[in-house]
């Protein structure tokens, strides 16, 4: 059950490397600045083993935003979660189990932000479950429980190719009766070219989904105080 007024935001992307983690941190920081209790959940993190491990996304989010964080599964190789789990020889939770774990956290927070892995159809478990399934299952579970909505935010690129990738992602969400709440351009260039400038307008026009934030390229490298100070200027 959610607590009174609990919001759930699922952050997905059109691809890997589009800026989901920084967007997640910005969403969390904005809510914290408004006095909300915030938890960020990462169902599956990959690429954290070996001699040159990637940083944990939850650590980055916590550092930038000050939010509480929860990572449910960590896998060594920088691969899709199902592939990484098979190669590592470990069992990982199903999407259904992830949904249950997330719902257990809701009563203690005003906002729970769930960051996906890669794009919308990347497999989070070895049964074929994806972030699309997680968003759909959370949406319908919470609607049945108390009518609470789940907001799905799609992080996209600024440059060439983003219109196609973003339309494909929003179309897939709508196919399972989940209406995307907003688009976030994850890394806006300091000197945008004509493609990026046109895309900033065309993304909303072609998808019917508003661009709710535009995050400058390199924002994830800012000190936390500067990051948090910049967040209000990035949101529409």
From TrEMBL:
Enzyme active site: 42
Family matches, as InterPro entries: DTB_synth_BioD
UniProt keyword annotation of Transport present: no
Binding-site list for ATP: 17-22, 57, 115-118, 216-218
Cofactor(s) this protein requires: Mg(2+)
Coiled-coil zones: none
Pathway field: Cofactor biosynthesis; biotin biosynthesis; biotin from 7,8-diaminononanoate: step 1/2
Pfam families: AAA_26
Catalytic activity line of the entry: (7R,8S)-7,8-diammoniononanoate + CO2 + ATP = (4R,5S)-dethiobiotin + ADP + phosphate + 3 H(+)
Key words of the record: ATP-binding, Biotin biosynthesis, Cytoplasm, Ligase, Magnesium, Metal-binding, Nucleotide-binding
Keyword Ligase assigned: yes
Subunit: Homodimer.
Family membership noted in the UniProt record: Belongs to the dethiobiotin synthetase family.
UniProt protein name: ATP-dependent dethiobiotin synthetase BioD
Species whose genome carries this gene: Nocardioides daeguensis
